């Protein structure tokens, strides 16, 4: 193994995917398995979305797409963000990637230099830490105990910020705790970040529609820090399109352009058929 880079040697395997693989192996052997490892909806992709994907093949959407996504898809995402979240993002501020994880990886690689600190509230989705390490960053964990419903406070955030802090990453609704930040709680965090314009925040909102406690709230709603927020979402959870692989980010234009450049060297544009199906999905309203 001498030829494997130190970067990869120091990278842990995704625990989520390792557990999922084990569950599938046991199920294949006839064991009854309750798989709590992966965020998989309990229904299939709706028929109207599948029909849109099939139609895309017949309409010959089988060639290279734009790196950032089809203009019609970015426009559909822009409309969705306005309709569902009252957020104003122009299509050029939106980058479509191969899943929300890919969008998060793009954002981290675009922002984090070696030695930069990235704040990660605990509990957290397992890939956050490894993606930060892959970029050469230093994960700094903020404990959010059960007494706080697994959510950090403005005071904790303020105490954790140092001159080396570049980024914070969190999810709401949270994977794995299920906790959901209220508008008031997010406003408290935003007031702290407002005083630290160099610190950006990745707001992972992929579980937006799996929320049974009230309206979904995004930290991007606070105008004072809008330029610091990288909003992450996708179609996997709300539309049961986990295997289609489509996520997106909405961010300040310089960040979006940086991620467009990065993605152009990694994957280019994502699956054309998925993009066309996602347009149909996003112009509908998930129920």
Secondary-structure element sequence? HHHHEHEHEHEHEEEHH
User: Mean of residue pLDDT?
Assistant: 95
The total beta strand count reads 7
Describe the strand arrangement of the main beta sheet, using strand numbers. Answer: 1-7-6-5-4-2-3
- Helix run count: 10
Can you tell me about this structure?
- With 287 residues, the protein is of the alpha/beta class.
- The protein contains 10 helices and 7 strands.
- It has helices spanning 6-9, 15-28, 47-58, 71-85, 100-111, 126-134, 154-160, 183-194, 253-266, 272-283, and strands spanning 94-97, 117-122, 138-143, 165-171, 200-204, 229-234, 247-250.
- It has a 7-stranded mixed beta sheet, sandwiched between helices.
- Helix 8 (183-194) links the parallel strand 4 (165-171) and strand 5 (200-204).
- The mean pLDDT is 95.
List keywords for this structure.
about 290 residues; alpha/beta; Aspartate Aminotransferase, domain 2; 10 helices; 7 strands
Briefly say what this structure is.
The chain is built from ten helices and seven strands. The chain has 287 residues and is an alpha/beta fold. The protein has two domains: 1-38, no CATH class; 44-283, 3-Layer(aba) Sandwich (Aspartate Aminotransferase, domain 2).
Topology at a glance:
Layout: H1 6-9, H2 15-28, H3 47-58, H4 71-85, E1 94-97, H5 100-111, E2 117-122, H6 126-134, E3 138-143, H7 154-160, E4 165-171, H8 183-194, E5 200-204, E6 229-234, E7 247-250, H9 253-266, H10 272-283
Parallel strand pairs: 2-3, 2-4, 4-5, 5-6
Antiparallel strand pairs: 1-7, 6-7
Helix pairs in contact: 3-10, 4-10, 5-6, 5-9, 7-8
């Amino acid at each position: 193994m001498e030829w494997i880079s130190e970067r990869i040697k120091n990278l842990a395997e995704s625990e989520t995917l390792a557990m999922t693989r084990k569950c599938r192996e046991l199920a294949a052997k006839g064991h009854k398995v309750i798989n709590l490892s992966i965020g998989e909806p309990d229904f299939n992709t709706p028929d109207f979305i599948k029909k849109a994907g099939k139609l895309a093949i017949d309409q010959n959407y089988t060639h290279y797409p734009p790196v950032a996504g089809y203009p019609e898809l970015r426009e559909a995402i822009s409309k969705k963000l306005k309709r569902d979240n009252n957020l104003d993002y122009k299509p050029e501020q939106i980058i479509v990637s191969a899943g929300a994880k890919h969008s998060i990886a793009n954002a981290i690689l675009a922002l984090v230099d070696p030695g930069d600190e990235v704040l990660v509230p605990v509990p957290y989705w397992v890939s956050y830490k490894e993606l930060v390490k892959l970029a050469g960053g230093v994960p700094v964990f903020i404990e959010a105990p059960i007494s706080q419903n697994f959510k950090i406070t403005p005071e904790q955030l303020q105490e954790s910020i140092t001159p080396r802090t570049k980024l914070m990453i969190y999810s709401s609704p949270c994977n794995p705790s299920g906790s959901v930040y209220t508008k008031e709680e997010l406003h408290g965090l935003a007031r702290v970040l407002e005083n630290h314009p160099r610190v950006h925040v990745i707001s992972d909102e992929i579980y937006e529609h799996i929320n049974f406690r009230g309206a979904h709230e995004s930290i991007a709603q606070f105008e004072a820090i809008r330029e610091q927020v990288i909003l992450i979402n996708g179609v996997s959870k709300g539309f049961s399109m986990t295997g289609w692989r489509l996520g997106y980010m909405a961010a300040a234009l310089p960040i979006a352009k940086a991620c467009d450049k990065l993605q152009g060297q990694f994957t280019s544009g994502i699956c054309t058929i998925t993009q066309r199906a996602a347009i149909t999905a996003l112009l509908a309203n998930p129920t």
